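ingest -> fold -> write
write: protein_1
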Amino acid sequence: MTPLSFLSANELADLIHRREISSLDLTGHFIRRIEQFDDEINAVVVRDFDRALAAAAQADKKLAGGDTIGPLHGVPVTVKDAFDVSGLATTWGIPSLKENIADTDAEAVRRLKRAGAVLLGKTNVPFALGDLQAYNEHYGVTNNPWDRSRSPGGSSGGSAAALAAGFSALELGSDMGGSIRMPAHCCGLYGHKPTWGIVPVQGHGLPGMVAPLDMGVPGPMARHVEDLELAMDVLIGPHVLDQGGWQLQLPRPAKKSIEEYRVAIWPDHEVAPVDVEISDRVVTIGETLAELGAHISDKALPDIDFKNSQSTYLNLMWSLTMSGATDEQYQTARQLADAIPADDMSDAAVTARARVLCHRDWLHHNNQREQMRFAWQAFFDEWDILICPVFAVPAFAHDHSPIQKRTLEINDEPHAYLQSMFWAGVSTLPYLPSTVFPSGLSKQGLPIGLQAIGAGYDDYTTIHFAKLLTERIGGFQIPPAYESK
C-alpha cells in the first residue's frame, strides 16, 4: 500500500472529495513531514505553513458547504522559488534579492490556487537558475533523497527533491536548459516541458522582467504520470495580455494503445556522449516497445545537423542571460568574448560570444531555428515519439567549484560539465514538448529518466505515451531512505 506521502495528486484530491481525509489533516501531514525530514534534504526553503493551514481550513469549509474549487481542491503543493507568490520573497537564489517580496502571484501559481491547490511553500534553486545543481549562498545546498551526497539536479532541484522525499503532492517547475527534465531524471520522477507559449510565464522573472523569455516554460513535475495531465489541464492557456484575443485547445491523443505508436529511438550522439548504461536503457526501452507491438526505428531522425543545432541553441539561450546585466558586467563579458580566437568553436567559446550577441546575429540564429522547426515538423509527420536521454549520467556528486572548471565522468572519461545540455536543447530549441519518465535504476541504485519528445502542441500525446509505457515498465519508486518514513 502506497504511503499517504507518496500518493498521487489525483488520489489525494479524490480522498478529500470523498471526505476520507480533510485538507487540513493532509496539509498538517505534509507540514510535519517537511519539519521532520527536510533538514537533511533542504528542499522547501520558503515555508508558508500558516497560510497553507488557513487555505486548507477554507477548502474544507467550502466542501462541507457543497462547494468545490477545482480538480486540486485542498491538495498541498509546492512551487519553484523563481515563481512569484504574493507575500513571499522571489530570490532566484540571489542573496541580494532576499527582500524581493512579491505583491501578486505568478499567473501559473494563480491557476493552481484557482484549481484549489494549497501552497505549502517554495523550493530551492541555484544562483540565478544558472546551474545543473540546486544551491545558493542564501538558502544553502539541496540534497538528493536517493543519495544525499549527490545533487538532485537543477535548476528545479528543490522541486524534484521535495517530490521524491514526499514533501508535497505536485510541483511547479520551469525549464529552458533542462531545468524540469534533468532533476526529474536525477530523482526518478515525471516532468513535462510544455510546448513553448502554452503556459503563461508572467510572474516568473527577475525584478522588472515582464516580457516572456524565449524558450523558457513553466511546467509540472510529479511522482505519478497522470498528475502531469491534471496539472496541464490547470496550467495551459493564453498569456495574461493575450486572453482577450485567442484560445488554446490542445489535441488529445489519437492513439489508444502502445501498439499504435510510431517511436524513434536515439540512444547517443557524438556531440554529447552519454553513459553507456543510459544509452543501453534507451535501447532496452526500444526493444520493450517492439515486443509490445509498437513500430520502432533506431535510425530515424529529423534532417538536421545536430552540431549546428547545438550551436544555435547555445547562442539563443546564453544570449538571454545578459538581459539584466549591468553595463560593467556587459563590458566584462564583451572583453572575454573578444579575447577568444575567431576559429574557436567550442561550446565554451560559443557561450561566451552568445552573452554579447548582437541583434543581427540573433536574427540569423532565429532563422536557423525556424528552418529546424520545419525539419522537426516533417519528422513528426512520420513518427509520433522520439525517445532519447535527458542527461549524460545519473545524479552526480555535489560540485561547487567554479562552473567553468567542472567536468563529468562519462564512461570513465572527463567531459565538459555543460556539454550534456545538448539533450535538453534537442526539444527546447524548436519549442517542442517533452515528457520525462523514470525507466528504472542504474547499477548504483540511482534513477535513470528518459524523455519522450513529440510534435509541437502534442503535449497530451507525450504524456499519454509515458502513461502507457509506465503501465508496462513501472514508474516512480520511493527512495529507500524514505520508504519507512
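write: protein_2
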Amino acid sequence: MTDAAPKPRSRVETVLKWVGGVTAVLSLVAGAFTVTRLLADVQERERYVAETLAVGQRQQGAGDYAAAWASYDAALASADAGGQFAKLTGRLSEPRRVLRHAQAELAMVWLRHISVPAGGRFSDVVDKLLPALERSAATTSGTERADVLAHIGWGYFLKQRDRGGGFDPAAQYRAALDVDADNAYAHAFWGHWLLWQGERGPDVIDAARAHFDAAARNERVRGEVRALQWSALGNLPNGPGGVEKLRLVQQLRRSGEPLPSTMLRDARSVYERMVRSRAAPLALAAALPIEEHVDLLNAAFGGDDAAVHPLRVAAEAMLYEAAGDRAAARQRWLRVLEDRGSVDPALREQAREAYRRLGARPELGLRLAPRSHMAFGLPNQWEPRSGSLQALPA
C-alpha cells in the first residue's frame, strides 16, 4: 500500500508564513533600532553628566557656589533618569556616586566660605546644603565622614546665628572626633565655638587654643585653620583677645607658618592700645618673654624706623617695666623724650611721668642748662649730656 501524496499548501498558509517571516524581521529591525537609540541616549546622557560636572567644578573653583550647586543638581537629575538598572539592583550608579560626592564636597566648601547679603539669613543657604551632607554622613566612613559631621555642626552654628539657639554644634564636633580623633575641621570648629560663647575664661581660652593647634597639624588646611582662629579671637574682649593674638602671631613666626600682613597690623594695634591705655596688663606682658615681645615689636612696626618709632619704644618701655626691669624701661622712656620728631604731646607727657615715677640714677650724669624744653619738652632748666638724663623734678 502506497503513502498518500501530501496535500499542497493553500495560498493562505503561504501568505501567513511570509507575513510571519516579515514580521519577525521587522521586529528584529525595530529591536535593533530601539537598542541603538537607547545606547545613544545613554551615551548622550553620560556626555551631558560629564560636561555638567566639569562646568560645576569650574564654577566651584571660581567661587560661584550657587551656580555650581545648580550644575550638580542638573547633572544628578540626568543621572537619576538614566539609572534604572542601578535602581533595580539597589545600588548607586557610578555617575550618581561621583555627583553626590562632588555635591557634598561643594556643600562643605560653601559652608566654610558662606556669605549672605544684608538682611539675608545663613539658614537660607544652610538648609539647602544640609540634606546632601546628611546623606553623605550616612554613606561614608573614616576621615571623609568626620569631615562631613564637622561641617554639619558648622551648619548648625550658622543656623543658630539666625535663630539664637536650639542647635548643638558641639555634639556634631564630638561625633566627628569619635570617628577621627585628629580631624582638623572638627577641632577648628570646636575651638571657634568655645570662643564664640559667653563664658570665655582662661580655661576656655586654653581649651580653644589646644583645639586650634591640633587642627593646624594638618598641613593641607592649616591656612584655613589659622584664619578661623584669628577670626575667633576677634570675639574675645580686647584684653584676653590681645594676649592671644600676640601669642599666636609669634607662634606662627617661630614655626615658619604663613603670616598674613593683617595679623602683624593687628599685633601692632594691640601694642598701640596698650600704650594709649597707659598701662601694660600683666597678662599681656606675660604672654611672651620680653625678648620675644621686642622681636615682635620690630616685625609689627616694620620699616627702617621700627627701632625708633616712639609708640614702639613706649610699648617696649612699658613691657620692660611690667617684667621688672625698671632701668631698661627708664632708658626707653628717655628715648621717647629725646625724640626730636613729632611725638604726640600726650605720649610725651606719658613718657615724662613714667621717667619721674621710675626715678633717676646718679650714674646717668646730667648738668643744668637752658633750652632743653625745645628738644625734650622738659622743664627748661634741664639739658642732657651724652644723651641721658640724671634727674627730673619730683
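write: annotation protein_2
Residues 85-91, 362-394 have pLDDT under 50 and may be disordered.
The CA atoms of residues 53 and 72 lie 6 Å apart.
pipeline exit 0
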